[in-house]
Write a structure and sequence with these properties.
The protein has a four-stranded antiparallel beta sheet with strand order 2-3-1-4. A hairpin with a 2-residue loop joins strand 2 and strand 3. It contains five helices and four strands, in the order αβαββαβαα. It is α+β, with helices and mostly antiparallel strands.
Length: 161
């Protein structure tokens, strides 16, 4: 289940970054991505990887490889023409991943958040760590004498600026 959630979040991020989700980005952008599933032989799997097909998840099932792929409809048609049986992945309500992303976008859901910067994930995680010193394992950055206590005085490697 965790892999499924990660795959959905990754696709949502790709949709928003590329502007492919309805209502996002430039309206003239015709790139449409969705998630497809295919079960293929090991050799076909290696061939797809070598050709750079976007594989979000892979699992060996009965000697074959079940793949979750991020594709445009044209890419899905091209794979089908080569004999790879691809089907759209749908949730229990029958929605595709792209439809779920569009529904989340209408509600204002945003995936992307910067890592660096004053409001980035790094600052957020360091603030949590500083607010909860007992949750640190002994000898962590907070107690190490050669590292500053304030994360804003450190570079990305943890060294003092």
């Amino acid at each position: 289940m965790k892999r499924w959630a990660i795959a959905v979040c990754a696709l949502v991020a790709v949709l928003f970054v590329s502007g492919a989700a309805p209502g996002a980005g430039n309206k003239s952008n015709k790139l449409v991505l969705d998630m497809y599933r295919a079960t293929v032989s090991q050799s076909t799997y290696r061939d797809l990887r070598a050709k750079g097909v976007d594989i979000a998840n892979e699992r060996v099932v009965s000697g074959k490889v079940r793949l979750d792929l991020v594709l445009t409809p044209g890419q899905a048609e091209a794979l089908a023409a080569r004999g790879v049986g691809v089907t759209l992945i749908r949730n229990k309500n029958g929605r595709t991943v792209r439809q779920m992303a569009a529904a989340q976008a209408v509600g204002g859901f945003e995936v992307w958040r910067p890592y660096d910067g004053p409001d980035g994930l790094r600052a957020y995680l360091y603030d949590i760590a500083q607010d909860n010193p007992r949750d640190h394992e002994a000898g962590g950055d907070r107690t190490h004498p050669s590292r500053p206590r304030n994360h804003r005085d450190q570079d990305d490697s943890g060294r003092a600026r």
